[in-house]
Structure formats: C-alpha cells, structure tokens
Amino acid sequence: MRYTAYRQALKRHGLEHDAKWETWAEVGDAGESDQLDWGRRFAKLRGRPDALVALNDNCGLKMLHSLRTAGVRVPDEVKIGCLGDTIETVEQSAQLTALREPIREIGRAAAQLVIEAIEKPKLRPQERLIEAAELVVRPSTAGVAESLR
Q1: Cα torsion at 69, 25, 113, 105 (round to 10°)?
Q2: 90, 91, 132: which is closest to 109 by C-alpha?
Q3: What is the mean pLDDT of residues 56-76?
Q4: What is the overall mean pLDDT for the chain?
Q5: Is the omega angle on the peptide bond into residue 121 within 30 degrees of 0, that is, cis?
Q6: Cα–Cα distance between 36 and 79 in angstroms, integer?
Q7: Taking the alpha carbons of 103, 99, 96, 37 in that order, is the dihedral positive or negative?
C-alpha cells in the first residue's frame, strides 16, 4: 500500500519513477556491514538520484547512517524522506523529513475491524483507507519537500 501511494504521488507531481534505484530490504533488514556496503556502493554511482524515499522510518535512519558513513553528504548530495515519523526520526541527529502517519486513527480503525470480525465472524474481511498524513519537512531534504506541498 505504501509503495502504491508513493508511485501515485510521483505521478501526480509529474515525477518519473526509475526502478533501477529501488532496493528492497538491502538497507532496512540487512546486517550492519551490508548496510555500510550499500552506502559505499551508492556513493560510487554516477548519475545517482537527487532524493531517496524510505518506506518506513527504520529504513530511512539506516539509509542515512549508511550514506553518511560512506561520506555522502545529506542533503547536499542526496535528500532523504521517509514514511511514518516516529520519535526516532525527530530525536536522532537524522532529522528526517517524513510523511507523518495518523497512528491513532490507524490504530482505532484496526481495533474496530477486529471487533467487527469477532462480532460478525461471517463478515468478509474489511479494509479502511485513512488519508490524513502530514508532510513534516526537516533538514534531510533542506526544505526541498516544501515545494511538493
């Protein structure tokens, strides 16, 4: 769902998606040495993108650490944004730009779906879309994200 929303947002703003820059789990789930290798590989690439988007805060923080360790200057050389906006993105030196998800509303909707499933076991699985995210611009994009509002 996040990936689909990301792709739709790119399209809505007339931005191209280039699948060659996608990486799945290499940064977020890998061990520390793999993460550092990812940053070093990215640092050596020619024609690299201006910005990266992590599909969650954890991946964004690991991505930022890996790039900084490899000597890539964020946001001067590449900007980073992420989805989520947990406390870690604010309190650490990362200061990641994030699309803040309405966690309470998501939790409330999830609880309501569970209650409905318990009370009505023959009810088909339900889905609820919550669209109340807020863009929180921080130093990892040097204010560039402001123009996308």
Answers
A1: 20
A2: 132
A3: 88
A4: 79
A5: no
A6: 18
A7: positive
